[in-house]
Amino acid sequence: MKSVNSECKIVLYDYRESVNYLVAFFWEHIDAYLTGNFDEGDLRDRLAAIGFDRVYINTELVVELIMRKPRRRTKRAVRLAPTEVKMARLLITGMRPSIIAQEMDRKPSTISTIKSNIFRKTNVDNIIDLMGAMDGAQVALRV
User: Fold this and answer.
1) How far apart, in whole angstroms, are the C-alpha atoms of residue 37 and residue 46?
2) Are 29 and 2 in contact (CB under 8 A)?
3) Which of 47, 49, 122, 124 lies at a CB distance of 3.0 to 4.6 Å from 129, suitable for a disulfide?
4) CB 94: neighbour CB atoms within 10 A?
5) Cα 90 to chain center, whole Å?
């Protein structure tokens, strides 16, 4: 809406009183937020605030946003191509890159590049750590 008319004011009403996405809404330039239990005084305060080009959010929500523990992000699965998964498994078994090159009918330089990509994607720098990364079942095939 603001891209069409930059002067418009946006007041968000949420009857669920959820603050999970509230910050993102303010980043998207809403001007005020009303919870499901607002009264006439709250509405008057919010309208007055946005009339003076101020963002309005009630004190209870501010406290909740400040005191709320951040959600823990789950680790994103490492995405390896099928060739990378096959090669990682061969490396873990102890096979040398030159032997892998013969087995996969690739140049040794190609195998070296694939190995570097595997290490970068799994955030490891040796075969032992790669074994742990592959064991952790956090490796997903990229299709």
Assistant:
1) 14
2) yes
3) 124
4) 8
5) 32
With contact defined as beta carbons under 8 Å apart, do 63 and 123 qualify?
A: no
Phi/psi-derived region of residue 123, left when phi > 0, alpha when psi is between -120 and 50, beta in every other case: left
129 — pLDDT class (breaks 50, 70, 90): confident
Q: How confident is the model at residue 104 (pLDDT cuts 50, 70, 90)?
A: very high
**Residues carrying CATH 1.10.10.10, the chain:** 78-141
Euclidean distance between CA atoms 96 and 108, whole angstroms? 10
Q: How is domain 78-141 classified at the architecture level of CATH?
A: Orthogonal Bundle (1.10)
For residue 20, what is the DSSP state?
A: T
Q: Name the token pair of 82.
A: 């099928």
